[in-house]
Amino acid sequence: MMKSIVCQQPGELQFLESTKPKPKAGEVLLKIRAIGVCGTDIHAYGGNQPFFTYPRVLGHELSGEIAELGEGVDLPLGKAAYVIPYLECGECVACRVGKTNCCTDIEVIGVHRDGGMCEYLCLPASHVVLTEGVPFDQLAVVECLAIGAHAVRRGDVNANDTVMVLGAGPIGLGAAQFAKVAGAKTFVADVNDDRLAFASRELDIDATVDCKGDVKAQLEQLTDGDFPTVIIDCTGNPGAMQSTFGWLAHGGTLVFVSVVKADISFNDPEFHKRETTLKGSRNATKEDFEHVVNCLANGSAKSTSMVTHKTSFSDFPAIFPEWVKPETGVVKAVIELN
Q1: Rounded to whole angstroms, how far apart are CA atoms 172 and 186?
Q2: Paired residues of 108 in beta bridges
Q3: How far apart are CA 251 and CA 247, in angstroms?
């Protein structure tokens, strides 16, 4: 038997006991060791997550140990691994060109199907990646960082760019790190003074932008009137997303990581005169995951400072309602299983 944490409906988490699963052909059984708590989990708990139905076992930022193999799988038992939680069809128009992250029939673990807030989980062997020398709590943050890395890649960021990352949550802080890895001058913008102080203290960014003030004036001063060549929005705020069209350099690129239940509109003359490039950024690909792990290994990116809160599996349902409150100061939280 094993235990799972189920979100029965918005605001309600419960323990559920069930039979430990058995891996099918092509699958592995992963003993879950660490779970990153994501904005997706917070939105699902709050009832604000698109593409979501209840009840649901949350959790898609996962690391663990290979516990059992299904038929046809040749992996070493007991080895540490992280999970790529996006299950693609492999056949659609997106998959055929390698864009598995936006498969037309994608299933995200913990969103479209039950996730990893449990003691054991069966997964396709192709989506479990063995990794040496990285602790379980850091492996559980790889998926979060990969989303930021993918956004940077979508923006074609290079050393000639000035990048503003709007939103200093975990995804935004990850994007800022990988913009710096790409060599760009990088700003982080937010309304939360504590988050901005955290970004300045823990990450090698060039400046912060206080969104409680005049953002355009701050950017004009920081860039000598040029404005950022790439803006990556990670706020989940429609108003902030719409404002970015007026904060961008001529010839620049907007990348929207945020998913909101809203229509986004913009002033067409402002859009047109800049010859703005607007891109969405969804999930990540294996290439992004590998880039993140390589950067963690060589020290050019870090996950440890982002993990500000930890708890045990047994204590999570009780503590999670507190963690969703902004005053708690959570940047990134991890659930650990012995």
Answers
A1: 11
A2: 86
A3: 12
| Residue labelled with tokens 């790439």 | 230
Q: Kindly state the tokens that stand for 147.
A: 């989303």
Hey, CA dihedral for 233, 235, 240, 242, is it positive or negative?
positive
Average pLDDT over residues 168-190: 97
Q: Which of 88, 32, 79 is nearest to 60 (CA)?
A: 32
Q: Can you tell me the distance from the alpha carbon of 100 to that of 138, in angstroms, rounded to the nearest whole number?
A: 24
Token couple for 178: 């990988």
pLDDT tens readout for residues 90-134 = 999 999 999 999 999 999 999 999 999 999 999 999 999 999 888
Helix (H, G, I), strand (E, B) or coil at 310: strand
Say which amino acid occupies 75: L
- H or E element that contains 321: helix 316-323
Which of 254, 257, 253 lies closest to 284, judged by CA?
257
Which residues are registered as beta bridge partners of 31?
Answer: 65, 120
Q: Is the dihedral of CA 113, 119, 120, 123 positive or negative?
A: positive
Peptide bond into 317 cis (omega under 30): no
Give the count of beta carbons closer than 10 Å to the beta carbon of residue 13. 17
286 close to 84: Cβ distance less than 8 angstroms? yes
Output DSSP code: residue 55: S
Domains assigned to the chain: 2-141+303-336 (3.90.180.10), 145-280 (3.40.50.720)
CA 299-304-306 angle, 5° bins: 115
How far apart are alpha carbons 205 and 137 in whole angstroms? 24
Q: Are 244 and 254 in contact (CB under 8 A)?
A: yes
pLDDT above 70 covers a percentage of the chain that reads 100
